[in-house]
Each structure stands twice: as C-alpha cells, then as structure tokens.
Specification:
nucleotidyltransferase, Rossmann fold, four-stranded parallel sheet, 4 strands, DNA replication, DNA-directed DNA polymerase, alpha/beta, single chain, elongated, transferase
Length: 133
C-alpha cells in the first residue's frame, strides 16, 4: 500500500480504479456525423466483395458508413436513429431497436440465398433512412 493509499484510507475516502482510461481521452468517444447513414458493427472492417456490393446497391459510399467494433459501441440504442447492421456479432438484447439488422458473417451470407433475401428485405424497409431527402 502506498502512502497515498494509506492516507485516503485514513480519511475514509474510497479509491476507484479506472479500467479504461482511453474513454476520457476521447479515443472511444463515438461521434456520429450528419453524413453517416449506416453503422456497421463487426469484429473487423468488412473487406468482402458482397459488403461493397451491398453498399453500392443501397447507394451509400464508405464515407456514409461508420464502422465500429463491438467494444466501441458505447452509446445506447435509444440514442441511435441510424440503421445499425451487426455482422457476425450478437447484439445485446437492450441494444435492439427498430433500426437494427443482424446477419451472419459475410462469407456465409454470400452463399446463402435465404439470408441474402432476408437482408435485402430489411434494407428495402430502411431505404428512407439511407436517403431521407
């Protein structure tokens, strides 16, 4: 126990340890720019052809897509008014909202016509969210 720890204990002050100090440094703060039309949550940034084909089909550029890893998704679902696509990531039950899409990994998606059809139906449902004007 350091002298500072001992002194705090004598003053009956509870000392807390910050586990993720980068939050206060702004590294994990997520700012959603006005140009963002889709949030993609995946373990790593998609590079498969089907991903780029989907973006092209819904007429979105990479600049209009915000990519986040699951650990970077620190905002609540109620605050997000943008379609959020979870790729091969189980979204937490509290994170589900009316603008959430869940799919398997993109390699499996590319081979499964049923899953592609389901995704396409959801994307068509959210078309006005991608292009509000």
């Amino acid at each position: 126990m350091t002298q500072t720890d001992w002194y705090l204990k004598q003053c009956n002050i509870t000392q807390y340890v910050l586990r993720n100090s980068t939050v206060f440094q702004g590294e994990l703060a997520t700012h959603i720019d006005d140009k963002i039309r889709l949030i993609v949550v995946a373990k790593q940034k998609p590079t498969q052809k089907i991903y780029y084909d989907i973006l092209k089909a819904i007429r979105l550029t990479e600049e209009q897509v915000l990519f986040l890893t699951p650990s970077q998704l620190i905002i609540s679902a109620d605050e997000v008014k943008i379609v959020t696509w979870f790729i091969d990531v189980l979204s937490n039950e509290p994170w589900q909202n009316s603008l959430t899409i869940n799919t398997c990994d993109l390699d499996s998606l590319a081979k499964d016509p049923h899953q592609k059809r389901k995704l396409w139906q959801q994307l068509c449902e959210y078309e006005n969210n991608f292009h509000p004007e």
